[in-house]
Amino acid sequence: MLKKMYFFLLVFGVVYAHDDVCQNDFQEHIVYWDKQAHNLEWFVPWHTTVTWQAPDAQWFLGGKINASYNCLDRHIKEGLSEKPALICRSEYGKDEIYTYGKLYEEVCKFALGLKKIGVKKGEFVALYMPMVAEAVVALLACARIGAPHMVIFGGIGSDGIYDRLKESKARYIITVDGTKRRGRVLTHKATIDKALSVGNNCVEKVIIVNKLGLSLSLNESRDIWYRDLLIHDAYACDPEWMDAEDLLFMLYTSGSTGKPKGILHSTGGYLVGVYTTFAMAFDIKSDDIFWSTSDIGWITGHSYAVYAPLLYGITTVLYDGAPDYPDKDCFWKLIEDYKITLFYTAPTAIRMFIKWGNEHIEKHDISSLRLLGSVGETINPEVWKWYDTVIGGGRCPIIDTWFQTETGCFVIAPIPGVTTLKPGSATRPLPGYDVAILDEQGNEVDKGFLAIKGPFPSMLRGIFGDYDRYKKTYWSKWDGRYYYTGDEAIRDANGYIWINGRLDDVLKISGHRIGCAEVENVVVEHPAVAEAVAVGIDDAIKGTELVVFVVLKEHTYTKDIENIIKYKVSSGIGVYARPLHVIVVDQFPKNHSGKIMRRLLRDLIAGKPLGDLTTLENPYVLDIIKECYDRVNVRGIETIDFPLFI
Ligand code: WT7
């Protein structure tokens, strides 16, 4: 029967319009994903597994599905109402536990409330929230009524919020009065007010969750309390039957141009990808308690702090606070308190734990852990070994997961108990993916561009409002045959993949993506700045730090300009992008055609050999720039501040 079904799929299920890609591998992958898709509950089954005309893929065509239904109703039907879905801890309040039953009720009540104020299927709803239960409620309520969510990371300042609201034309934004980091109040609602005060947006309602009890000045016609919006009397809210290709969400990320990209994800393909890879790489058991430390403002938070664990019906932990408050042992205390079994974090955090010392960990019994995950950047083998020994007690597999905002879910990761681990390598592609390392011409090489052949279910479906950029960025390098990741990788003799990092001018700071051009754009908006160049410099904890060089317009230097520019970057992009140094110089190194030689600035401050200088038009600037840099770079290692959000 199963064989027959596959035959049907192979012959009729795939509309595939490409010439020279190896059809057999591709067909195998399609059969694989088709099979995986049956793990979710569909209202109507799909009739076509995939259509592919590069760069446009459509998966599970004809299928009708709802994300919130699969995360909630399904488990309720199976009798899991009493099972904890969310365990929430914050640095300011009491722990809260949401069972699947309670989460379901709250999602339905809020979904009805959203409908009541006029939220329509297909329209973006913005969120600007910390890691609180209501953020998960809001995501699922949006998904329930078919309104794609658009989360704006809580570390993004008012200018960044303004840009995103303007572009998406969102009419609704959900937020909190505020939250706390290390006891300090962060005022989300006030930041939104500032963004909206500029005008030029479509926001009609700001929905506020009262977390801290701050006294707010409310705009009567626009602001509305979350509590007041919940519809209490009839709380069943039928889920919308979404087409598999309908949007589930948009999430902004940095690219190599100055403008962030609104990455679009579909419903069916995304859910299938997230569910499958979670189960595969983390070997999920029904009684697992999973903690991903990633904020919901990032793809890891969407896919693995919220959707994957809830699709699977396990318990997910949300922590709203800094990792060192009230003390540096707060993470390990949380693991001990709830007997967390799976812990997933980023190398930048692990490097910080190493620096803080093992004594904070030794205070707690963390033997409930059975598997550890890593994501966001390459984990250095020494850090890997520490993670394995000190956190994992030598008994937990370390699952290094490679993926991107664009891929939606894991692409390269080990399968516990199957893949032999190698510290520092994300190992091999998971089933369903054809990963290649290519040169410019598309030949397979041992070291080169990391690429993915053909379409996969959870891949992005586009960039909001910019089809050409989508096509050009991801699918044009090898004529639509391979997806371009932007990363460089090496394949070793055993076929293991080692990620070297980004090849474009995109930095990873504490695991966050920041485009150099985006920073430069913000900096040159300052009226005194003529030109700006942003480069990265290695940092022991954050991985990379941002250094911005500026050339000012004549006679515009003012004493505090460096700090003003730093502030401008924090508010324009986010606190996580605040430059370590802003350095005023007279000229940039340029080549004969006047192009800035950014490579030289990078190598100069890193103390690396400068290599070939024959194309440099103004060699005399190098010593001067180095001198300027050395003058400001007097920071001791102890001043590094851990980011408020990870
Ligand atoms: C970029 C994507 C994926 C979730 C968080 C970041 C880098 C991601 C790994 C890893 C080495 C990694 C890549 C990638 N990256 N995971 N396990 N090993 N590098 O998502 O912000 O979209 O960033 O993060 O450079 O392209 P993102």
Structure, described:
- The protein has 646 residues and is an alpha/beta fold.
- Among the domains are: 2-64, no CATH class; 67-88 and 95-240, Rossmann fold (3-Layer(aba) Sandwich), CATH 3.40.50; 510-645, 2-Layer Sandwich (GMP Synthetase, Chain A, domain 3).
- The chain is built from 19 helices and 31 strands.
- The protein has an eight-stranded mixed β-sheet, with helices on both faces. A seven-stranded mixed β-sheet has the order 6-5-18-17-19-20-21, with helices on both faces.
- A hairpin with a 2-residue loop joins strand 2 (48-53) and strand 3 (56-61).
- 51% of the residues are buried.
- Mean pLDDT is 93; it is low at 1-13, 15-21 and 636-646.
- 5'-O-[(S)-butoxy(hydroxy)phosphoryl]adenosine (WT7) is lined by residues 253, 298-300, 375-378, 400-405, 426, 485-487, 499, 501-502, 508, 513.
Shape: globular
What is the typical, i.e. mean, pLDDT?
A: 93
Number of strands: 31
- Outline the low-pLDDT stretches: 1-13, 15-21, 636-646
**What about the largest sheet?**
8 strands, mixed
**Secondary-structure-derived class:** alpha/beta
- The helical percent reads 25-40%
What hetero molecules are in the model? Answer: 5'-O-[(S)-butoxy(hydroxy)phosphoryl]adenosine
Write down the Rg: 24 Å
First-last Cα distance: 48 Å
**SS element count, helices:** 19
Strand content: 15-25%
